[in-house]
Amino acid sequence: MASNSNFLVGKAVHKDFDGTQFVGKITAFDKKCNLFPFHVRYEDDDQEDLSCSEVKAILASGLTAEEKKEFEALEARVQDHAENEKKVEEEKKKKEEERKQKAEEKAEEKEKSAKEKAEKAEKTEEDTGRPKRGRPPKVKSPITETSAKKTKTAVADDTIVRTANADGLQYSKCVKHGGVVYVAGQVASDTSDTTVKGQTAQVLNRLDAILAEVGSSKQKLLKCTIFLADISTYDEFAQTWNEWVDKDNMPVRATCEAKCVLPEYLVEVVAEAAV
To answer: How far is 37 from 6, CA to CA, in rounded Å?
Structure first.
């Protein structure tokens, strides 16, 4: 078939929304062998593009020998085109994978070369007895040595350890960093107890459990912030607190009146402790 030529291969029928039937001529176009080489224009001016398989399914009558020959030739070209497109895509993918592999090998070789160079330079410095560049020789100080015997040097730990809530709440139960554990606000687990004394005891028990979990205790408390839903209940809270707190290791503390997230909560405690 010549390029951009066309020929009639049959008729198609479609129904409008009211059931009226319209006949259309199925015309084959040889346009770059795309996957929809057939076109239909119906009597009501509706149009659509069809694939080879769709045309086979809707042809109402057989093709002439000439039309059948050209139809089969067009179908073969469409199939060839699809296979060629697939091969081109696979080749493109293969080249991209090869490019990535070469880039990774080049990066590894560069890293290996830099490492060997550094090791060679270090060995040369050791063999010649010269100090490493940028690092002056260490000079022991009598004052430093004496101080080291008397004082422990604190080494900062940048590790952050977060303990999630078992009930899936969107914040950590506690966070440990730099030798300190920060405990989220604790409230009573059983709000059927409507007394400040009872809820305070529950909160302090929960605080004991969390501190023990991370290797701390109430003896290592540094700071506590107390929120009371009603500040007039302070004496009731203080009585339970005083029975619980370690008198020899009392933390700093602030107490204020604030509404908790739920009205059933009468007391909430936020704490920080050493680990």
So the answer is: 10
pLDDT at 234 over 80: yes
Which parts of the chain fold into alpha helices (H)?
A: 52-58, 65-128, 142-150, 196-213, 234-244
Helix H or strand E segment including 10: strand 6-15
CB 190 within 8 A of CB 239: no
* 193, 254 Cβ separation under 8 angstroms: no
Q: Which long-range contacts (CB under 8 A, 24 or more apart) does 210-213 make?
A: 210/163, 210/173, 210/174, 210/183, 210/186, 211/181, 211/183, 211/271, 211/273, 213/163, 213/174
Q: Say whether pLDDT at 266 is over 70.
A: yes
Residues 28 and 10 sit within 8 Å (Cβ to Cβ): no
Query: pTM above 0.70?
Result: no
